[in-house]
What we know:
The complex is a heterodimer of chains A (about 400) and B (about 290).
Chain A: H1 2-24, E1 27-34, H2 38-54, E2 58-65, H3 69-80, E3 87-90, H4 95-100, E4 104-105, H5 108-112, H6 122-127, E5 129-130, E6 133-134, E7 136-149, H7 150-156, H8 164-174, E8 176-177, E9 183-185, H9 199-205, H10 223-239, E10 258-262, H11 263-270, E11 279-282, E12 292-302, H12 308-318, H13 321-331, H14 341-347, H15 351-359, E13 361-362, H16 370-385, H17 392-408
Parallel strand pairs in A: 1-2, 1-3, 12-13
Antiparallel strand pairs in A: 3-12, 4-12, 5-6, 7-10, 7-11, 7-12, 8-9
Helix pairs in contact in A: 2-13, 8-10, 16-17
Chain B: H1 2-37, H2 54-61, H3 63-93, H4 99-113, H5 116-126, H6 133-140, H7 155-179, H8 184-192, H9 197-208, H10 210-225, H11 229-234, H12 246-256, H13 260-288
Amino acid sequence: MKKVLCLALALCLALAGLSAVAASDPIELSFTRIGSDPAERAYWDWVIERFEAENPGIKIVYDEVEIGDSIDNKLNVQFAAGDGPDIIGHGILSVAQRVELGHYQPIDEYFETWEGKDDIMPSVLANGTYNGHVYGLGYSTTPYVFAYRIDVLEEAGLSVPATWDELAETARALTEKNENGEITFSGFCFPSTGGNLVEMDVFVYGNGGSYIAEDGGPLMTGAEKEEVIGYLNDLLPDVNIPYSNGETNPFAKGLAAMTLMNNAALTSVINNPDYEGKIGLAVPPHNTTVGTFCGCNMLFIGRDCADKDAAWKYIEFAMSRESTLKRSEIVNIPVTLQSLVEDYQAMDPWNAVRAECVAVGTGMPRTLWSTQFQKIRNELVQNVVLGNVTDPAAALEKAQDDLLFEIDG
Amino acid sequence: MESYNRRDTRAAWLMLAPFLLFFALFVIYPLVMTVYYSFTNYNMSAAPGWVGLKNYQRLLKDAVFHKAFLNTTVYALVSTAALAVLGFLAAAALNRTTRSVKWIRMLMIFPYATSWAAVSMIWLMMYDPTTGLINKLLRLFALPTRQWLFDESLALGCLIFVHVWKNIGYCMLIYLAGMQSVPQELYEAATVDGASDFRKLISVTLPTIRPVAFFVVTTTMLEAFKTFTQVHVMTGGDPLYATTTIVHQIYQRGFTEFRMGYASSMAVVLLVCVLIFTAANSAINRAGNGGQGA
Lengths: 409, 294
């Protein structure tokens, strides 16, 4: 009897010990974000370190995936396995589709009590809202800016182009070729392949165009887009070095005078000591309308998140004023909180340009057909850069038909 | 005797059971489910809904799939022919016993031992039109450069070249093993008859290692049909689907566009093509062997 009692007591003590250990195990949240640039990685390391210090019971397991197919492939496989990340950092393109698939959880109840609720920019909030519910909060706007080599333009005695005509003239003047006629230094480089060829969108928006019809359906046709294709058809063969926008832009390698570039990716170029004082930023040259592409990455709570409260705590921390300003300081990303705009502009002389790009920027279509749109738009851009388009109107009609075919599938 | 046989049979089944279980779980089950999903609109999130032949009907109208099918066929035929011939010639050249030959064989097998991802990254850098080694060498010799992976007419050929470069060592090794099993008496008899080295190669070596050639052709063709990694890493199917393959399209449709049902129908088409090829290859080989098996 004594032996039995002793054994029972030992078992109880052991179980109690195990539960204590289990109870003291930190909550582990997986966080996967889009993009793999080093500057933003440094920022998230800063956020996670401080968040974990303030919340010792929560541990963040961080992962990042490059922009393009890779992030969607990874998320799709994880969700199919029932093991989606707890917190996801993704773009506008993901909102409609992933909400419909149930991958993102609504955060209305947290948003209503969030102290930053009235401070977040309305356009940024709209990006993360779908069917009247808030799913994501924008932490990073990703405007495409016009980057140029200050030293190259000064040496040639040229000013920064503000219109399409000026861009064409300046780019041709700065392009260098070797004895075989091959371009060795690009006056203006434009990608020919890549995961998301938004560089074309910069020109479309700069000409007053849109990809969404009044009825909310896709719109690949239109005179504005015909003009864009005609312009690029005429300019690019004279000035461009082909590259994939999934790899290093020739501008970053010192092989181009001007380009369009994601503001976040540009940070590593600006921070390169070899280019100190040589990189200038501007709002992209326009034709009829001042406009550019401006994406928005948001933080979402994933479908498989077991601890929504903990996940919201992390999102709330990342969206705080301190974290937002730190993000701007490290990555030069424009702020998404209205009260911080002046502080942001005071940080860096080029931040006024970045802020203007955000103000005039338009993102990916926030529709169920955004993935299909990206594919067909990429195909159109490649045709243009490869010189396959002799009839812009016909090419756009085909793109419209192809997109409708893809959507129908 | 009967109980001995029954005991033997039971023991055999028990020993086969682990493999059969593995085969059923990881080959048969996925195969059956793929065929089932090909008749549904499965998107990896919601339960699959039956759509009948809709996915197959869409394949007939899908220009991108047609391009992928053509690319895969060209890729498979050209790379297999090149590997079958070049592998044989390499083995013939290295079928000797000098010391340096061992080092050459080892160097040739290195690419085969390297992962496709690493090989793809290296060749991606080499093919870069501006900073790549190939164009730099061409400029050095005042030869015209090319856009390589950015040129619709050259991109697929560039990938085929990499495929051949990577696998020629493997084919050489297989052929070499076959050549070294050819009876020496046949070569001696040919020498007595006054045959040259080339004549011996064509009239003695080649017919004798026919089963090895069949094996090389079959395995390299099957490998070519599965082409994905180098496409995904080096071109992403670009430019303008000039390098996309069936497996690449399966990946795109299934994992990027949430259309696993449609992707499954492509996988079924690929399976049928591979079965047809394998059957045809076996028939040709049997005919060559006078009606006997491979």
